[in-house]
Amino acid sequence: MPTMRTGPGRLPGMARPSKRTTLREVAEATGLSTAAVSYALRGKHVSKETEERVRKAAAELGYEADPIARALASGRTSMVGVLAGDLQDLWQQQLMAAIGRELLAGDRYALILDAGGDPDRELALAKQLRDQRVDALLVSPVNPSAEGWAAIADALPVVAVGDSLSAARTAGQVIFDNRAGIDAVLEYLHGLGHRRVTVLTPTRPSTPDRPADVYVGEAADRLGLRAELVPCPQELGEATLVARRVLDGERPATAVFCFSDSLAYGVYAAAAEASLEVGRDVSVVGFDDHPVSRVLTPPLTTVDWGLAEIAAEAARLTVAAIEGKRVRKKRILCAPRMSERGSAVRV
Amino acid sequence: MPTMRTGPGRLPGMARPSKRTTLREVAEATGLSTAAVSYALRGKHVSKETEERVRKAAAELGYEADPIARALASGRTSMVGVLAGDLQDLWQQQLMAAIGRELLAGDRYALILDAGGDPDRELALAKQLRDQRVDALLVSPVNPSAEGWAAIADALPVVAVGDSLSAARTAGQVIFDNRAGIDAVLEYLHGLGHRRVTVLTPTRPSTPDRPADVYVGEAADRLGLRAELVPCPQELGEATLVARRVLDGERPATAVFCFSDSLAYGVYAAAAEASLEVGRDVSVVGFDDHPVSRVLTPPLTTVDWGLAEIAAEAARLTVAAIEGKRVRKKRILCAPRMSERGSAVRV
DNA sequence: GCGGTTAACTTAAGCGGTTAACAAGCCCTC
DNA sequence: GAGGGCTTGTTAACCGCTTAAGTTAACCGC
Question: Beta carbon of B132 within 7 Å of strand C?
């Protein structure tokens, strides 16, 4: 029978394998009650000198509070659930990365889940996150006006970031002024002489009166141009296929307005396949300003919303909501800034 | 004094606000002990009919086990800590998204942290993840051979994915055959007539004998070409600056080999600024095959490692390690596939 | 018909913290 | 000098679940 051991050899004097030091051990070492230690480590109710003594002992023993136990007792994990609408979208990947960084800087963890563009899944994942006891929920381009979100918002603070001017009760919102963005783009294209525009929208089951769609319709009517909405997956391969159909149609529109830069990349790919030159044979406008957009040929004309500030504000609102702080503005409106580059031209 | 209530109005008959149903309540409803219910819900030790009865009651009461309490009692959260080397790298963003999906499909959550390219931070974050009690740690392009990783691997299974042929004890590895990839690229460039190549590597404090660097040196010697290693940040703006310096130098190399596609985008941007044409004035090769790489002009010649399989294998190894299963191959070697496109040309 | 299994539950002791409630000591005040 | 109010601690009750160990009662072979 082979010698059993729970781990590899260990130098004498080192801490036991994966046995963490507990609060009780610190209490015993200091001759205090566990309660006193618990308070001391969080700087409450105890004298300066006791606090010092406890801290010292804790440090010596290498004590680190167990987040799970703490969560069970206190009701708060230090995790924020982050629900991404669709991580196939490169810009959302960027956003999630930025949000993760922001939260981590405040000693919180982002538990990021990807709804993959499916609204039903969004709600299911939101419930999973709630059940995971995250302290707050940060939902990205998601539409939390659906039935069922109330139950989520009841249980924990929800911060929305995206285009949803949702009626649902949220603890904060960072919203893109989509109407302004859409107006700006369509006016821009109109000014360049375009009269027929294809609008590539993310595929989501057609809620008939989705705000963005409505804005497009209104702006188109106002400007007197024809805008056709075409749903399109964010994944490049599929987006390329859809874009291909759009470009290959008979009498294709002169311009394609994409609701995300990722979709625009699909148009670039499709154009290349069809030997069309973006910025000459067809105009393309994106909607995110992803870093690589400026590397394309021609550089993609798009709408910048200020990703860094969005991530920072979202994190700030979320943390404030968790801590129950009052914030001056619970609703941050992001103004669009057109990044005019070479992909849209006069027709 | 205003009326206080804990939540918004609620229809009579609906469940109480954010009070979850507990195991005890199900136990009372069925007249069983909490233990019996606990067992029943996990299908152990109980009769078929009791199990059925419990399931029904649980469903009716809308019972959902509290993951925190479960974690405290059982010692396992259903979270996998995922440590990304640098999320500025677009390919790593893709990888993280894919890993997140894979794990979620298996009812586990990915707790993703970004080391931002800093090796010291890597270890610190790994410790944080361990303290968060994740069931396993999945480390992406990270070098776990450093001092201190042993303490991590002692406490939980560690799966490595990346180029690290690390000596540290891991529960599994998905490794890119970097030597093969580097050889392939340099041979390819050599075959095109290039004799001086700049190699853009991610900035990490210079561990003098990092494997990849060594491979470059060896391959260069063998082929008789001169390869200059230049560290470069993954963020596009900074990468562009570095690339700019590389391209502007006097007697610049004829080809730039980038250790990630993100770095290559920087070269494209720098080339455009300098009015150089990639694929004519300078050859560029990437190393990841990020989706957008094929959208660039010219499409980026790069090395594909099969992201989807990597993510799937990494998730599989991780789950296997958690469940203590034996796996046939604990070490998956990913072979490079050159995606030859238009960015590297004969000189 | 009797010890030995086994199936089906129950009991109860945690897991490692938090936190309300109470107690002791000390200083003031009236 | 009794009562009031701090400050500093302690006690003990959770938080909601898991699980080792114990209890019945039915079943079984001989």
Answer: no
